[in-house]
Amino acid sequence: MNDIDAWVWWLVGAAALGIPLVVTAMPEFGMLAVGAVAAAGVAGFGGGVVPQVLVFAVVSVALIAVVRPVAARHRTQRPQLVTGVDALKGKQAVVLERVDGSGGRIKLAGEVWTARALDTGLAYEVGQEVDVVDIEGATAIIM
Question: Would you say residue 29 has pLDDT above 60?
Protein backbone atom coordinates (compact mmCIF):
# COMPACT_ATOMS: atom_id res chain seq x y z
CA MET A 1 0.00 0.00 0.00
CA ASN A 2 2.94 2.34 0.58
CA ASP A 3 4.07 1.83 -3.02
CA ILE A 4 1.01 3.63 -4.43
CA ASP A 5 0.74 7.39 -3.99
CA ALA A 6 -2.26 8.91 -2.21
CA TRP A 7 -3.47 10.72 -5.32
CA VAL A 8 -3.91 7.36 -7.08
CA TRP A 9 -6.10 6.12 -4.22
CA TRP A 10 -8.22 9.26 -4.49
CA LEU A 11 -8.65 8.66 -8.24
CA VAL A 12 -9.60 5.04 -7.58
CA GLY A 13 -12.14 6.33 -5.06
CA ALA A 14 -13.50 8.79 -7.62
CA ALA A 15 -13.89 6.00 -10.17
CA ALA A 16 -15.57 3.83 -7.53
CA LEU A 17 -18.04 6.66 -6.82
CA GLY A 18 -18.72 6.92 -10.54
CA ILE A 19 -20.11 3.38 -10.65
CA PRO A 20 -23.12 4.00 -8.37
CA LEU A 21 -23.60 7.33 -10.15
CA VAL A 22 -24.21 5.49 -13.39
CA VAL A 23 -26.16 2.62 -11.86
CA THR A 24 -28.49 4.63 -9.61
CA ALA A 25 -28.53 7.97 -11.47
CA MET A 26 -28.01 9.77 -8.16
CA PRO A 27 -25.98 12.92 -8.92
CA GLU A 28 -24.70 13.10 -5.35
CA PHE A 29 -22.26 10.30 -6.16
CA GLY A 30 -20.88 12.42 -9.00
CA MET A 31 -20.39 15.35 -6.66
CA LEU A 32 -18.51 13.12 -4.22
CA ALA A 33 -16.41 11.86 -7.13
CA VAL A 34 -15.48 15.45 -8.02
CA GLY A 35 -14.49 15.99 -4.39
CA ALA A 36 -12.25 12.91 -4.61
CA VAL A 37 -10.60 14.27 -7.77
CA ALA A 38 -9.97 17.58 -5.99
CA ALA A 39 -8.41 15.67 -3.09
CA ALA A 40 -6.25 13.78 -5.60
CA GLY A 41 -5.01 17.14 -6.85
CA VAL A 42 -4.06 18.19 -3.32
CA ALA A 43 -2.28 14.86 -2.80
CA GLY A 44 -0.50 15.24 -6.14
CA PHE A 45 0.90 18.60 -5.06
CA GLY A 46 2.21 17.09 -1.84
CA GLY A 47 -0.57 18.00 0.60
CA GLY A 48 -0.93 15.92 3.72
CA VAL A 49 -3.80 13.65 4.68
CA VAL A 50 -5.69 16.32 6.64
CA PRO A 51 -5.76 18.86 3.76
CA GLN A 52 -6.78 16.08 1.37
CA VAL A 53 -9.73 15.05 3.51
CA LEU A 54 -10.70 18.69 4.11
CA VAL A 55 -10.66 19.47 0.39
CA PHE A 56 -12.69 16.33 -0.32
CA ALA A 57 -15.28 17.29 2.31
CA VAL A 58 -15.48 20.99 1.39
CA VAL A 59 -15.74 20.43 -2.37
CA SER A 60 -18.29 17.61 -2.00
CA VAL A 61 -20.49 19.51 0.45
CA ALA A 62 -20.26 22.73 -1.58
CA LEU A 63 -21.31 20.94 -4.76
CA ILE A 64 -24.20 19.20 -3.03
CA ALA A 65 -25.31 22.47 -1.41
CA VAL A 66 -25.18 24.43 -4.68
CA VAL A 67 -26.05 21.94 -7.41
CA ARG A 68 -28.88 19.97 -5.76
CA PRO A 69 -31.26 22.95 -5.35
CA VAL A 70 -30.62 24.03 -8.93
CA ALA A 71 -31.25 20.50 -10.20
CA ALA A 72 -34.42 20.21 -8.13
CA ARG A 73 -35.70 23.51 -9.51
CA HIS A 74 -35.09 22.37 -13.09
CA ARG A 75 -36.76 19.03 -12.43
CA THR A 76 -40.01 20.72 -11.38
CA GLN A 77 -40.16 23.26 -14.21
CA ARG A 78 -42.41 22.57 -17.17
CA PRO A 79 -40.70 22.45 -20.53
CA GLN A 80 -40.81 25.77 -22.36
CA LEU A 81 -41.21 24.14 -25.76
CA VAL A 82 -44.90 23.57 -26.38
CA THR A 83 -45.88 21.08 -29.09
CA GLY A 84 -48.98 19.53 -30.60
CA VAL A 85 -52.37 21.09 -30.01
CA ASP A 86 -51.03 23.01 -27.00
CA ALA A 87 -48.88 25.02 -29.42
CA LEU A 88 -51.99 26.09 -31.34
CA LYS A 89 -53.76 27.62 -28.35
CA GLY A 90 -53.49 31.40 -28.47
CA LYS A 91 -52.71 31.48 -32.21
CA GLN A 92 -54.64 33.54 -34.70
CA ALA A 93 -56.67 31.97 -37.48
CA VAL A 94 -58.70 33.18 -40.47
CA VAL A 95 -62.35 32.19 -40.93
CA LEU A 96 -62.92 30.25 -44.18
CA GLU A 97 -66.59 29.40 -43.62
CA ARG A 98 -68.92 31.21 -41.23
CA VAL A 99 -68.28 30.04 -37.66
CA ASP A 100 -70.92 30.11 -34.95
CA GLY A 101 -71.86 27.97 -31.95
CA SER A 102 -72.66 24.98 -34.17
CA GLY A 103 -69.51 25.01 -36.31
CA GLY A 104 -67.62 26.30 -39.31
CA ARG A 105 -64.09 26.22 -40.77
CA ILE A 106 -60.92 28.20 -40.13
CA LYS A 107 -57.38 28.21 -41.47
CA LEU A 108 -55.01 27.65 -38.54
CA ALA A 109 -51.24 27.24 -38.93
CA GLY A 110 -51.63 26.55 -42.65
CA GLU A 111 -54.27 23.84 -42.16
CA VAL A 112 -58.04 23.83 -42.41
CA TRP A 113 -59.73 23.09 -39.08
CA THR A 114 -63.33 22.72 -38.03
CA ALA A 115 -64.17 25.36 -35.48
CA ARG A 116 -66.93 26.62 -33.28
CA ALA A 117 -67.39 29.83 -31.36
CA LEU A 118 -66.69 29.91 -27.63
CA ASP A 119 -69.71 32.19 -27.18
CA THR A 120 -72.56 30.35 -28.91
CA GLY A 121 -74.39 33.64 -29.50
CA LEU A 122 -71.59 35.08 -31.67
CA ALA A 123 -70.86 34.39 -35.34
CA TYR A 124 -67.66 35.08 -37.24
CA GLU A 125 -67.75 35.85 -40.95
CA VAL A 126 -65.42 34.77 -43.79
CA GLY A 127 -62.06 36.57 -43.75
CA GLN A 128 -62.29 37.63 -40.11
CA GLU A 129 -59.26 36.98 -37.90
CA VAL A 130 -60.03 35.08 -34.70
CA ASP A 131 -58.07 33.75 -31.72
CA VAL A 132 -57.93 30.06 -30.85
CA VAL A 133 -58.63 29.57 -27.14
CA ASP A 134 -58.80 25.78 -26.99
CA ILE A 135 -58.72 22.61 -29.04
CA GLU A 136 -61.31 19.89 -28.37
CA GLY A 137 -60.51 16.81 -30.41
CA ALA A 138 -60.25 18.07 -33.98
CA THR A 139 -62.27 21.23 -33.37
CA ALA A 140 -60.76 24.61 -32.58
CA ILE A 141 -62.68 26.78 -30.12
CA ILE A 142 -62.37 30.40 -31.19
CA MET A 143 -63.27 33.87 -30.05
Answer: yes
